[in-house]
Automatic annotation (TrEMBL):
InterPro entries named in the record: Cyt_c-like_dom (IPR009056), Cyt_c-like_dom_sf (IPR036909), Cyt_C_IC (IPR008168), Cytochrome_c_Oxidase_Subunit (IPR050597)
Protein name: C-type cytochrome
Transmembrane parts of this sequence: none
Protein's UniProt keywords contain Electron transport: yes
Signal peptide stretch: 1-25
PANTHER family attached to this UniProt entry: CBB3-TYPE CYTOCHROME C OXIDASE SUBUNIT FIXP
Source organism, top-level taxon: Bacteria
Any one GO molecular function term: heme binding
Length: 217
């Protein structure tokens, strides 16, 4: 990536980040859940939620396979799943009682990410933390801090940026299709090829995936 473009984008991104501090944090729930999951749950449940984590194999623990449990999870409220994770009704013997480690807000975020693992057909192929940084630098001017397509540029130009929080619309696009749009541009959207590498675009796609997942049930 061009150094001068990076420096200019960093300055702009910092200003836009300050402008968006008051935005509703609900849109970040699944992203925050990814952090909790990858800090604590991945060891047993595995990176894709299949119950095949390295610790589960070593200790011979039958960790839940969220993909296999999708129908059951779909029938559970967030509160019921939260209670199970915390150590209440339905809690599995081999699972820690996470109420002793995390507050409810973080566990509910983990619930949102578990639902993503259980139901999404789009694997997360890169680091969404890096992707969030690129989103802040390059995307929020048009797509907005919360990804709804309501950035300040919409008041200056006749544009209708995509709503990245719309699950029905975003789910129709494969990771490859979404990356191609970012790379080559579409309509009024500029092409980011030459500014972002293929790997950086993959990180951006991963973050956008977490924006488009519904937060609660």
């Amino acid at each position: 990536m061009s150094r001068s473009i990076k420096q200019a984008s960093l300055a702009l991104g910092f200003v836009l980040l300050l402008m968006g501090r008051a935005a509703d944090a609900e849109y970040l729930k699944t992203f925050e859940g990814w952090k909790v999951y990858n800090s604590s749950c991945i060891l047993c449940h595995g990176p894709q939620g299949r119950g095949d984590g390295s610790l589960a194999k070593k200790l011979r623990i039958n960790a839940a396979d969220f993909r296999a449990r999708r129908q059951k999870l779909d029938g559970m409220s967030d509160q019921a799943l939260l209670d199970e994770i915390k150590g209440g009704r339905g809690h599995l013997r081999d699972m820690p009682k996470w109420r002793d480690i995390y507050p409810d807000t973080q566990l509910l975020a983990a619930v949102s990410y578990i639902r993503y693992l259980a139901g999404s057909s789009h694997p997360l192929e890169a680091d969404p933390i890096e992707g969030q940084q690129y989103y802040q630098l390059y995307c929020i001017a048009c797509h907005g801090q919360n990804g709804k397509g309501e950035g300040f540029m919409t008041s200056l130009l006749e544009i209708q940026p995509a709503d990245h929080t719309n699950p029905a619309r975003m789910d129709r696009l494969s990771n490859q299709q979404l990356a191609a749009i970012i790379k080559s541009g579409k309509g009024m959207m500029p092409a980011w090829k030459g500014i972002l590498s293929d790997h950086e675009i993959s990180e951006l796609v991963t973050y956008i995936r977490l924006l488009s997942h519904p937060g609660g049930r």
